[in-house]
Design goal:
With about 60 residues, the chain is mostly helical. It has one domain (about 5-65). About 60% of the residues lie in helices and about 5% in strands. The chain has helices at about 10-30, 40-60, and strands spanning about 5, 65. Helix 1 (about 10-30) packs antiparallel against helix 2 (about 40-60). The protein is elongated, with a radius of gyration of 15 Å.
Length: about 60
């Protein structure tokens, strides 16, 4: 456990938490769609897995609770 980092220091978890929060905000209020181009949704759908993969490759430590 000495090589583990606290979950709050995980960039991967932060990126996914922010994405999930924005999806929840949009689903609950519909506030984001009028201000964003339609192509942004496609870019996020393609980009988020790529960002996750890059962050995972960069990761050298396990995450602990």
């Amino acid at each position: 456990m000495a090589d583990c980092k606290h979950w709050s220091r995980s960039r991967t978890l932060w990126v996914n938490a922010i994405a999930a929060g924005l999806v929840a905000l949009e689903a609950g209020t519909g506030m984001l769609q009028p201000h964003l181009p339609v192509s942004l949704y496609t870019a996020v759908a393609v980009g988020l897995p790529v960002v996750n993969a890059v962050l995972r490759v960069m990761t050298h430590q396990a995450v602990r609770a």
